[in-house]
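S.,

As promised, the EPU run. Input:
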Amino acid sequence: MRTCFNVDLTGMNTFRMKVSSRCLVEWSSVDELRDAIADPSLPRPLFPIGGGSNLLFTKDFPGTVLHCSMKGIRRIGPDRVHVDAGVVWDDFCAWCADNNLWGPENLSYIPGEVGASAVQNIGAYGKEVCELIESVECVDIRDASLITIPASECDYSYRDSRFKHDWKWRYVVTGVIYRVSSEPVPVLDYGHVREAVLERYGTDAPSELTPEMVRETVTSIRKGKLPEVDELGSAGSFFRNPCVSPEAFSIVREIADKDSLGPVPHFELEDGTVKIPAAWLIDKCGWKGMSRGGAAVYIKQPLVIVNWTGSAIPEDVMSLAEGIRASVKERFGVDLNREVEYV
Ligand code: EPU
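Predicted complex:
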């Protein structure tokens, strides 16, 4: 276990905010984590962090950041894999592709670590990680006890889980058990994925595809649209795509007709609501490329706020986000909710 005090967190959050933490514990076994939780001398609160790719530190953190450095991937059956929380998510995707296992290929190249993937229910290109999760292993911060939580109890939904609500600040994820498949189960029906696969490989027949082919395709789509977090700080999508009532959607359509904005992209969901890409709403409010201090709206994907100058401060990002939220509400009557967590 490595314990450090007054630690610079710039390298531990993908937004690259220059903030510090009173204390940082890098734990490399479940027992070490339990010892840290039981140690009353560590500053509170205790806050588990993965790759820091979905959060914005709004100020210096007064407690202890807990980070997992365990990086094991173990096959525990023909179709089940145990992965330590500290494994870089995309390393797990690469491992599956190398072993010809289907499951996470559409989620390739998403920044962050395995532990956070289970909290946040990461999703992309027609798949969500909750479809693969069998159970989540955690330590309870209240009493350092171990618990294995079946996915069915995590209340997974679009970019959401109980870990973000009643279990917030309660559990530290130590590992995740995923179900994968050695039979081809490609999911190609989102956006241009099928087209891109056909263009690259000349076929979309499941029996002729490998998980590596889908992984490569998705990776190249992402690289064309989203900033590389190593080069330009960001936390990926800043807002969730809003799901609105059919009535609210009609209002958006009327405004789009009146202002000649073209057809409104949308997806009708099973629960009767309509999902509208937040990127479209933000774009039509004229935010592309706009900035506040060192933070800017990414030109290729306006759902992403970037640390454009490299020296943006949390207030720049928060002020830009608030401006976006207010103008989308004013023009379209739609509420944008943050995907990024403020700490
Ligand atoms: N659009 C515009 N203007 C633009 C760019 C996009 O109007 O400049 C509109 C277009 O209608 C386009 C849509 O926005 O069809 C963008 O859709 P796209 O499928 O590219 O992505 P998204 O809905 O904006 C979601 C996820 C991404 C994920 C992609 C692909 C959320 C909040 N975001 O974005 O996740 O990679 O789908 O599945 O659901 C992340 O969470 O960090 C993330 C990047």
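The longest strand covers residues 171-179. The mean pLDDT is 97.

- D.
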